[in-house]
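If your schedule permits, I should be very grateful for your opinion on a structural question. Please examine both parts with care and let me know of anything in them that strikes you as inconsistent. The record follows directly beneath this note:
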Amino acid sequence: MRTAEPTEPVPTAPPSLPRLAAASLAGTAIEFYDFFIYGTAAALVLGPLFFPTFSPLAGTLAAFATFGVGFVARPLGSVVFGHIGDRHGRRPVLIGSLLLTGIATVAVGCVPTYESIGIGAPLLLLALRFLQGLGLGGEWGGAVLLTVEHAPAERRGLWASFPQIGPSVGFLLANGIMLALSATLTDAQFAAWGWRVPFWVAGLLAAAGLALRTSLAESPDFLRLRRHARVPLAEVVRGHWRLVLLTAGAMAVGYAVFYAVTTWSLAYGVEHLGVSRTVMLACVMAAVVVKGALTPVVAVLGDRYGRRPLCLIGCAASALWMFPMVALLSTGEPLPMFVGFLVAMLAFITMFAVVAAYLPELYEPRVRCTGAAVGYNLGGVLGGALTPIVATALAQGDGKPWGVAAYLSAIALLSLGCFALLPETRPVAAPDPAAATGC
C-alpha cells in the first residue's frame, strides 16, 4: 500500500493561505463560469437551435434536460476525482478537473446546430455537458479540501469560504458576458453566433486558472497520512453511507434555490412574463453580487457560532420565502423581482457559506475527498438537475406558479430535516490525520 510522509513544512502563516485561497477562488470561479454559461444559454437560446422540431415548451424542457445531465455526471466526477484526491493528493484534482471542464466548455461553443447536422447536434451537446459535469464534480472537493486542510481550525470556515465565492464570480462573469452580448446584438445575431462567444472565452480563463494552480503546495493533512484508502468509494459506502445520504439531502435545497433563481426564473421571465433578457439577467446578477460579498461574513459567523445552526436557519428561511419570491417574480417588475431574488440568495448563502468547512469536517481525512464531494454533488442531482425541469413543467398556465413555490419549500423542509440529523463540528478540530488508519 502506498505511504506518504511529510516532505515539507506545513504552511501556517501568510502569504501561504491568502495565495491558496485566491487560487482556489479563481479556479472555482472559472469552472462554475463554464457550468453556468450553459445554464444561461439553455434558458435563453439552446431550445430553438438544438431542438427546433419541438414546441417552445418542449424545446425549453429538452434544453434543461441537457443542463441536468451535467448534474447527473457530477457525482461520478466526484468518485473519479475523489479517488485521485484520496490516493494521490488534492493538488492533481485541481488541475485535472479544470482542464477537463475547460476543454468541454470550449467545445460546446463549436457544436453545429440542428439545422446543420440534425440529431447529431443535441447528442454532441449532451456528451459535452456530461464531461462538464465530470470536471465540476471533482472541482469542489479538491479546491475546498486544499484550503480547509491548510487553514487553522478556528478560522477554517473563513478560509474555506473563498472557494464558495467562486460560483458567484463565475456566475457574474458568465452572465455579464451574456448580458453584454444580449444588449448589443440583435436577436438574429445572438442566435447565429453571439451565444457561442462566452463558451470560447472559457479557453482563455482555463489557461489562466491552470497557471495559478500549478504552483500550489499539497495539503498537509494528506502528506501526514500514514495509510491511504485503497478504494475510497468502497470505504465511504461501507462506513459512511448514512452520512453521505444526509449530506446529499442537506445540500439539495441550496442547489434548488440557486438554480430556481438563476436558471428557471430567466426562462420564466422571458417566455411567460415578456420581460427582456437584459432586465432578467440584471436582476439576478444584482442579487448574486450581494450574495458573493456576504459569503465570508457568514463564514466568520460559522466559525464563531457553529456550522449547523446557520444551515438550519438558511433552510427555514428558504422554506418560508419561496411563496413570496414567486409572487414578486410574477409581477414582472425589476425592483420586486430583485427583492425576491435577493432574499432567496441570502437564505442560500446562510447555508452554503459554511458547508465548505462543514462537510470536510464530517469525514475523516483518508476518505474526505471522496465522501464530502460525493455527498455535495448528489445534492446537486436532487436539487439542481431536477429543479429547472420540474419548475418549467409546474409553471404552465396563466396563473402564478405556486406549484414551483410548493416544490421548492418541500425541498427546503427535506434539507432542514437532514441538517437536524447531522452533528455540529465547530469548534472540534478535524480528526488527526496521523491517527486515521481505517474507517
